[in-house]
Design brief:
- The protein contains nine helices and eight strands.
- By secondary structure, it is α+β, with helices and mostly antiparallel strands.
- It has one domain: Outer membrane efflux proteins (OEP) (Up-down Bundle), CATH 1.20.1600.
């Protein structure tokens, strides 16, 4: 019975372990992959946490100006009383005034309980702090939005790279199958003495190179897929299926209308973040100026204390003596040997620097947009040109293959036609991925989603 129970426990444990370690399967279009990454990418998750932390920081700042209540309970046990010296006739008018008498004040035990209500009435730094907390939250929100844009671009590139690697594998496999067939036919022709051995050797060299390229393409496909999984926040051991094709994505990313749009730097996240920096420096300058204003606060204290020579504070007949007070505190800086003036000037310089950085960022973004738009336009042109060149290369290779089989061209001419075809194929694939990548870069600059 004990043996059966042990086996049952092992079976249950193995089933639970298998369920926990079971591979999950995901299927994504490009847009679905982007949406999943924005929610699950590791950097995006921490960016959302930064926003929550900023909200808590904002409330922390707000709460510092609201009523504060503190309590205190103090117990004192006088192990040895402090003795005070008095003149000999202090308590006895007839005594010798030159003699010294000693006396100890206090009780063996004492206890004090108090509560304090404090309220800030006016503080310039508190006003600036509230404004700064709001800016800090905006900075965190803009940082999250910038992270989302970067993730969008990153996933687009990674998704395209996976499709590029897979298309490369398919093309290499197709080319290899065609070349193996041609090599077999050429080898048989050579055995019959109808062609030169050099033709066979030339094809073997090409086949070896093609086989190596195919093996490398398969490895790159696996690496590209794992990079996409990491970008999406998915465990690399899980299965991810991509449902879109490279051709379709390239066509959908060709949008000539964006080339006629005007660039507005106010929509750029880099510009917004730089404006946040300018505002924070302005508030720091405001804070330094507000230091010259008075700080006003009020507090209400209420407490009770009791005394005893024996520890009997918990009894109901213990007598407590109440006390209370109310106070207002006003603090006003008078003179600091121009220290505060120096700090204000430093803050003013930092603010001026921030304004200059905003202007620089605006000009740099305009240049980046111009460059990105030019690159995108060129990628579209290259896409069309590479597509036409691929068709020409396919026709040339097909003609050379027929001529080679009929003995009308050399192996060198046929091999050159093959290499030209292989280059055209890779250029076409690269042109498609460039259209996607350049469009993603342009969208990031213009804050398009």
């Amino acid at each position: 019975m004990k043996q059966k129970l042990t086996i049952l426990c092992l079976i249950i444990a193995s089933v639970i372990y298998a369920q926990e370690n079971e591979k999950k399967s995901f299927s994504f279009t490009l847009q679905q992959a982007i949406d999943h990454a924005i929610e699950n990418n590791y950097t995006a998750i921490n960016a959302k946490r930064d926003i929550e932390a900023a909200k808590q920081k904002k409330w922390e700042t707000t709460a510092s100006g609201l009523p504060q209540i503190t309590s205190n309970l103090q117990y004192l046990n006088n192990l040895d009383f402090q003795v005070q010296g008095v003149s000999g006739n202090a308590f006895n008018p007839g005594g010798d005034p030159n003699e010294i008498s000693t006396i100890a004040f206090g009780t063996k035990h004492s206890m004090n309980a108090s509560a304090t209500l404090s309220q800030l009435i006016f503080d310039g730094s508190y006003i600036v702090g509230l404004q700064s907390a709001k800016v800090y939250l905006q900075i965190s929100e803009n940082a999250k939005e910038k992270t989302d844009l970067e993730i969008r671009e990153m996933v687009t590139n990674a998704y395209g790279n996976v499709l590029l690697a897979r298309e490369s594998v398919l093309i290499f496999e197709k080319n290899k199958a065609t070349l193996e067939k041609t090599l077999f036919e050429t080898t048989e022709t050579f055995k019959n003495g109808l062609t030169e051995e050099e033709n066979v050797e030339q094809l073997q060299i090409t086949l070896t190179h093609l086989t190596s390229s195919l093996s490398n393409a398969k490895k790159r496909e696996e690496i590209a897929l794992n990079l996409l999984k990491i970008a999406m926040g998915i465990d690399i051991n899980n299965e991810v299926i991509l449902t879109e094709k490279l051709d379709d994505l390239a066509i959908s990313n060709v949008d000539l209308s964006v080339l006629n749009e005007e660039f507005d730097s106010n929509n750029s996240m880099d510009f917004k973040i730089q404006k946040n920096n300018e505002e924070s420096k302005r508030l720091l300058l405001k804070l330094e100026r507000f230091r010259a204003l008075p700080t006003i606060g009020a507090q209400l204290n209420y407490g009770a204390n009791t005394f005893a020579n024996k520890f009997d504070f918990l009894t109901t007949d213990q007598k407590w003596y109440n006390y209370s007070n109310f106070g207002v505190n006003i603090s006003l800086p008078i003179f600091s040997s121009f220290r505060d003036r120096s700090r204000t000037q430093q803050a003013k310089i930092a603010f001026e620097q921030a304004k200059t950085q905003v202007t620089e960022t605006e000009q740099r973004l305009k240049l980046q947009y111009q460059q990105a738009k030019t690159d995108y336009e060129f990628s579209i042109e290259q896409y069309g040109a590479s597509k036409s060149n691929l068709k020409l290369a396919e026709r040339i290779e097909s003609k050379q293959q027929i001529k080679f089989k009929e003995g009308l061209s050399t192996s060198f001419e046929y091999t050159e036609a093959q290499r030209q075809l292989y280059t055209a194929q890779q250029n076409y694939l690269q042109a498609m991925i460039e259209v996607m990548n350049k469009k993603a870069t342009l969208d990031k600059l213009t804050n398009k989603k």
